[in-house]
Amino acid sequence: MSGVDFRRPAGQLELSVLLLGASAVGKSSLIRSFVGENFRFTNPATVGVDMKRRTVELEKRNKIVTLTLLDAAGQNTFESIVMSYFRSADFYALIFDVTSKSSFEEVDNWMKRLNDLENMAENCIFVIGNKVDLEKEWKVSETELTNFCNGFPDPKPIPFLASAKTGELVEDVFTEMCEIVLDRMQTKKEKDRRSTIDTTLDPPKNSPKPKNSDDCGCLIL
Ligand code: GDP
Ligand code: MG
Q1: Is 163 domain-assigned?
Q2: CATH code, domain carrying 168
Q3: pLDDT digits (tens, 9 = 90+) for 179-197
Q4: What is the pTM of this model?
């Protein structure tokens, strides 16, 4: 995880998210909505990777995070995109269109591809069903989405719904994703610190008793 540095002064956190998914599911539209640009009925196809930035207020932790949004083009360029961008992303948002079953099935492929990549096991992955405004055309239910995410081992992908068109839930989804990612980063950092302390204190199993110990075998510090 590259973008966040807890040594920075409070309020100067940085995170980056890579949006992936089939074409026309609304990746570019979600980003446009989140950065306050108008919804467009036709977006020019994204070429390669597009990048936008926005600051996000995290009220729960009283901090501001600068979020870099990386908008990836269609799946055919997966290899080249991911090779150059996946290391710089702190987390991944797999987008599908709730009115398109095939775009939802694509998410499974993206999960497999991401899981095949080195060092990806611990990264935060979110699955976002977009176009919830098309109420009568839903082909994927919220339950299907939740069950899909629950079918993975921990850390499970986290499900969200949104509409780039109406802006419904867009702000909440991006803010919540940042909160979750920062929580996990902090938990991991604490776990790493604890395990460093543990290995420093635990002598190897077959090592002789420390010289400055009495019969109880405890280290006297
Ligand atoms: P991308 O290829 O994944 O970047 O998809 P785009 O953002 O270019 O959007 C593809 C099409 O879906 C465009 O015609 C958008 O206007 C439309 N679209 C995107 N988001 C929504 C949404 O939330 N609701 C509806 N109804 N249409 C959307
Ligand atoms: Mg696009």
Answers
A1: yes
A2: 3.40.50.300
A3: 999 999 988 888 888 888 7
A4: 0.83
